Amino acid sequence: MTTSQNGWPVQDTKAKLWPHPEVGPILGGPVWVVMAAFLRRYQAEIETIGRSSGCYNRRRIAGSTKWSNHASATAVDLNWNLHPAGAQHTGYSARQITDLTALLAEFPVLRWGGPAFNDPMHYEIRPGVTRAQVKKLATTLLQKQLLTHGFALEVDGVRGAVTTAALLEFQRAQGLEADGVDGPKTWSALLTTSTVAA
Ligand SMILES: [Zn+2]
Questions:
Q1: 57 C-alpha to center of ligand 1: Å?
Q2: Number of domains in the chain
Q3: Ligand 1 center–CA 143 separation, angstroms
């Protein structure tokens, strides 16, 4: 299996990617859930995510034989018109840097390319982070959202029977395919509807 620099599999096609309105397709599953949550917070707390943004790009790192994390659809570039590569924080105010640092502390599976390697538009699944770590954060995000819909469950990051049952019940109540997968349509409903569990 060919992997990108952070150890996630290079995607030859978009088959395993899920759509995202701001950055286009992102690797489906827990990576999508975590990245989409980060992008919502970024958009609300840091700045609008404009058209000069993207995720999937099946390419190698410039000047290297290694595959870019964009090739595994586990990295996003945000507003490259504002934050060109070359310095740590180009285009971000001191206040935004403070807010971003605090925001990223809530997403420890992510790494910001600015401080890491002078690529301030770039955010990625951190090298060395395991699938289990990403899944745990994604499950925590799902559980918190299900809580707001009135489901009684513990926010423990463990995808057990109670969480799965709540998700299935939510999907059925929303007229969604009850497949137990929290993909883009389910997340859209989780974020926009105010239906409370019966
Ligand atoms: Zn990038």
A1: 9
A2: 2
A3: 30
| Domain CATH number, residue 32 | 3.30.1380
Of 6, 5, 2, the residue nearest 128 (C-alpha): 6
pLDDT classification of 184: cutoffs 50, 70, 90? very high
- Where do the H-state alpha helices sit in the chain? 30-45, 94-105, 113-117, 131-148, 161-173, 184-192
Indicate whether 3 belongs to any domain.
no
Q: Kindly list the protein residues that place their beta carbon closer than 5 angstroms to ligand 1, a single-atom ion.
A: 77, 122
- How far apart are the CA of 54 and the centre of ligand 1, in A? 8
User: What number of residues does the chain have?
Assistant: 198
Q: How many H-runs (helices) and E-runs (strands) does the chain carry?
A: 6, 5
153 lies in which domain range? 131-192
Type of residue found at 9:
P
pLDDT in tens, 134-143: 999 999 999 9
